[in-house]
Amino acid sequence: MSIWNPWHGCTKISPGCLHCYVYRRDDSVGRDASTIFKTNDFDLPVQKAKSGEYKLSGTDGTVFTCMTSDFFVEEADAWRPEAWAYIRERQDLNFTIITKRIDRFSIGLPADWGEGYPNVTIASTCENQDRADFRLPLLINAPIQHRAVVAEPFLEPLEIESYLRSGQIDEVVCGGESGEEARPLYYEWILSLRDQCIKTGTRFSFRQTGSLFVMNGHAYHIERKFQLAQAQKANINFIPVYIPKDFMNPPLPPEEEPIHATKAAISPESTDQNRNSTSPATAEIVDSGIHISGINYPIEEIDEEPDLTASSDENQDAPSDEAGHENHSAREEEQIRSLFEHLQQSRFRSQFHLHKEERDYIAKIGLSKIESHARDFIRTKLAPKEPFHDGKQTPMHGHPVFLAQHATGCCCRECLRKWHHISPGRPLTEEEQDYIVHVIMTWIHKELAKQ
Ligand code: SF4
Hints:
seven-stranded parallel beta sheet, three-stranded mixed beta sheet, 12 helices, 31% helix, binds iron/sulfur cluster
């Protein structure tokens, strides 16, 4: 994942903007965030290295766009057509645009936009009910292929089930506000929003707690570096199970199962990823929905006020604001987590497991040797520009790494393209090889943990 900020600066337009991160950051360096200007990265998606290759490779996958401004801010109207052209040119990248200005979406749209570019997700932020009722009808009716709702900062209870029932919203993400003056986020609001997502078969993510989190009547000040991890501990994200309409006749090849679930039939048997979780959170089925009970995960209570500016934590340097922006390393972890969730939804990928034979082998030679083998396999069989017998180079059994490769979509260049957005026809970089080994070893560790 990567971040592209074609312009910087913004004007405050709604309650969610009150403690805007961009303003706080700019204030701290004596800059006026209301001055909007094109950045040196304006054309980042089409910038090329000396080698002639794009600086943003296909492996960057999702490009979070305009994280220190709003893509549809009025001052950028003249620049936006060029930015759209870059997005159109880079069909190998997925651009996610989070906006509080969905009402300005149509201004400067490209002539060939049609029903939307397939590589663009538009996410409308909805910090309160008033803004949800204003923006979501606009979002739903706009010609967009992928839509999301971002409730960050989440300022009050939201009732958006009727919008979700339109089937036009792929995902809802929520989280709290950061900074010393953060407004509180109540856990019951999150659970209510989650229930609405479950009822409508909409993907749901509780992404971060914010700085002031209230649960069971207790308020917690949470340092920024813990906010993402604490939300993950809740383990309440929800992924609807997608059943293709033509599942039975003819069935889709397992490899063709969509990664992004859209609205279709939702399996009543397996709609909650918590069902078999070992998390303290427990879930039980009530009618068509899931009732969460007994969620009681620990939250570090921090006595002192969070001091974001004084921290040397590298996370503090990453572009981020309440509009759903986070640090890079956290995003990488989120990427891995999301990948494994998608893999679990694939009938083909999820059929692979370590058996006694492979487990014994691992116990015998050790995980460091296994990782070394993985590195060798990737370097010799996947990394070349045109791997020998590509598509057939990875046996279905015989080594734990082979199983892991099939289980994680790392078995050939076409699967790398499909599952990891790593384009074929060129050698894999060292970084890409490291990433693939990391994915493989993560799967092996997960399998071993099932013992
Ligand atoms: S929160 Fe977003 S829309 Fe509001 S001022 Fe900041 S960048 Fe602009």
